[in-house]
Every structure is written in structure tokens, then in C-alpha cells.
Amino acid sequence: MLQTEGWLIYAIISTLLYGAAAIFSKLATNHIDFKSALAYELVGGLLVGLVVFSLTGFNVVLDTRGGIYALLIGAIGTSATLFFIIAMSKGDASIVATVIALYPIVTVVLAFFVFKEHISIRQGIGLVLALCAIMLCSIENPPSQDTAILTSTSPIAPVESPQPEIELGN
């Protein structure tokens, strides 16, 4: 029987959920603006938090340093979500999600400096290849030079967000 580390199943679930969240972010911003999408996302996050707290019990651990780091998680994570939603509203979901999914580059580099974690040659090569992936995914081809190898027709057609009409003067 295959044995895995205790963290692996949670990482796989997280990966699947982030992938689904990217699709729902694009669907949401096809219908509403990014500020509204962020507001709904925050309410959804609050609901998940309330369910987790009610099912597992909730005791606040009072520790200044841990509390500050946790507040930073919320501020940075929500900021990242905001920029993710904006990117999804302006770009193709497949490209935006690919570029954003390379955030571990930042984690590896910061862990090297903050925690003194070692970066092996193989990991270094992986970081360079990930940077190449960002460049390859973010370069847009002109429509006349589209070299798509796969195309799809979705049953969920994108709908442009209605733009408010702005009247100037009388």
C-alpha cells in the first residue's frame, strides 16, 4: 500500500480547490466587477471559517507574535486574492492561473533567506524553468499567429460584465 506524508493529502485537496477557485473567479468576473467578486469571496471565506470553528471547537491562543503573523496572512492572502481576481477579469483563466500557480518561487527564495533552507541544484534548475514558464505563458500571440494545439467550446459561455454608462454634462 502506498504510504505518504501526513501533509500530502491536504496539499492535494488544496491544489484541487485552488484550481476550481480559479474557474469560479473567471466565471464570477464574467458577470460582476472585481470588487463585488472580492466581497462575495470574503463572505464565502467567513462562512467556511464559521463552519470549521463550529465543528472543531474554537479557543483563541493568545500570542502576540503568532497573532501578528496570522493577521499578516489574512492581509497578504486577501491582497493576493484581490490581484488574482483582477487578473482573472482581464486575462485568460488558463494563463493567469498558470502564472499565479508559480508562487512557490517566491516561497522558496524567501525560505532560503528567512529560514536558511537549502536550495539544491535540482530545485535551482526547477526555479529557472518556472521563470521560463512564466515568460512563455505571459507572452501573448497576435490573433493572426494563434498556434493553439487544443481548442474547446464551453457550455458556459463567457458573459461580459455590463459597463455602467457614463454621461458627461447635460
Considering the chains and any ligands shown, give keywords for the structure:
170 residues; mainly alpha; disordered C terminus
Overall morphology: globular
Structural classification:
mainly alpha
Number of helices: 6
Terminal CA distance: 75 Å
Strand segment tally: 0
Q: Average pLDDT, to the nearest integer? A: 83
Residues in β-strands, percent: under 5%
User: How large, in whole angstroms, is the Cα Rg?
Assistant: 20 Å
Low-confidence stretches: 161-168
Helicity, in percent? Answer: 55-70%
Major sheet: none
Order of helices and strands: HHHHHH
Describe it.
This protein is an all-alpha fold. The chain is built from 6 helices and no strands. The chain starts with 7 loop residues before the first helix and ends in a 32-residue tail after the last helix.
Secondary structure elements and their pairing?
Elements lengths: L7 H22 L4 H23 L7 H27 L2 H8 L3 H11 L6 H18 L32
